[in-house]
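Please check these two lines:
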Amino acid sequence: MHRLFTTISQAMRNLTLHKLRVFLTILGLIFGVSSVIVMLAIAEGASLEAQRQIAELGATNVIIRSVKPIDEENPSKQQNNDSFIFKYGLTYKDFDRIVQTLPTVTGATPIREFRQSLRNRDKEIEGRVVGVNPDFFRLTNQKLAEGRFISDADLHFLANVVVIGSEVAEKLFPFGDPMDRSIRIGESHFYRIVGVAAPKASSAGTGSSLAAQDFKKDVYIPLTTDRARFGEVLTNEKQGSYTAEKIELTQVTVAVDAMENVKRTAEAVDSMLRQFHPKKDYEITVPLELLEKAEATKRIFNLVLGSIASISLLVGGIGIMNIMLATVSERTREIGIRRALGAKRRDIIEQFLIETAVMSGSGGIIGVALGLAFPPLVASVSGIPVVVSPWSPVVAFLIAVLTGIVFGVYPARRAALLDPVEALRAE
């Protein structure tokens, strides 16, 4: 142990003779280690955010949404000139078939959504009106900040009640409690506020059939009230053009009894709907499949980013090998004297490897410190979520030390193989 301590002390003394050179040598390792930690933190944060959004949809849910068929995207392509109403999408009959036919379905909630102006006196914003059933919040993992959600009685009596999103509450009622007050939806319908939804992060458009949505601007009313007050035909007039669309249901969220039955249930739903929707005016999203794809993408992302950051470690290792080869040339006479005094080749190799380990270890420690300091800064400046995994600093540090030692082996062997007589003759 004393011998090892002496060797380490000697290595430290040799390195401190050229502080700037040593610092410049380990700079590559510092950047390599820090970049590995930061890149993995960004990748982990982005992956967890995607997985969070997907998990909120429900791992045992199947989501079916109405989509406009391609041949109805352009009104000029309509073959029926007697009607200007485009009818497509899911129907109440589709909902009943899904619930009554598939044994693996334990629950389902239909919704219909459309954009509409929301007003309170002189304050107005545009939001998304969502007609729902009482079990909507349970199946979609949403929470209430205060009040209650839509009840069975509201559904039965076609009540003019509404649960508003957090931003709607802030914009329309900036100085007071919105509970039991009224808002006007559209031109003539007033609704009493019975609840305020808890803030929920905006969706980034998870899945091909799920568009990006700002849930904070949603308002929820009973589906029966939606049907009675607004009807099934939605009209839109913009810049002299007029369009009308008949959509009974915008979306149906189906809860499945077990995770292993989710994909099979989605296939059964698709097979059933295909019989009644030859134009394929619906799309099915399975959050479980999206979750599996997100995890696979995370692994690929981590591999790519880790490979890019590892290039810096490789450059740092080459720098260490280069500087140690130069050190061998400078210390040829010293090596000859040590060999003449009885030092073995193993001792010379040990000394040089300890020096490279000290250099790479120092670079690794500084790199870990920078790598842990940068992610919060990146998150605050860019808004990108970052998560530093506990294992990433440890792995980055160990790789840095291992890189330094591996690239230090050749210079150490070269020093040990010097002929003592020739080394003593060196100038």
Observations:
- DSSP finds 13 helices and 13 strands in the chain.
- Residues 287-330 form the longest helix (44 residues).
- The longest strand covers residues 105-120.
- The chain has a mean pLDDT of 81.
